User: What shape does this take?
Amino acid sequence: MRKVTLAVITVAVAAGAASIYSASNPSGDRLIPGSGPITEQQIRDKLTAEGFSNIQITLRGSVFETVATKDGRQAELAIDAQSGIVSQDRDDDDDD
Assistant: This one.
């Protein structure tokens, strides 16, 4: 039962994060318009300009795992370092 509750909460947080970002980024899947690699500083600058705070960015392989807060809600984003494409942060552990 605990795993099910944790899974439901994780999905809800991920969906909320995606909706927060989508509302503030109507231009598409790329965090910053253009093409090519994206840097940690570009991510930090963009999220700060969009009103996010408490921004934490960790590079894992070729993905920037980003956690930030906006309007009292936490957003988790996975941003491909090479393409700048944003996706929901994935739950990669096998706890189900």
In short: Residues 2-88 form one domain. The chain has one domain: 2-88. The radius of gyration is 14 Å.
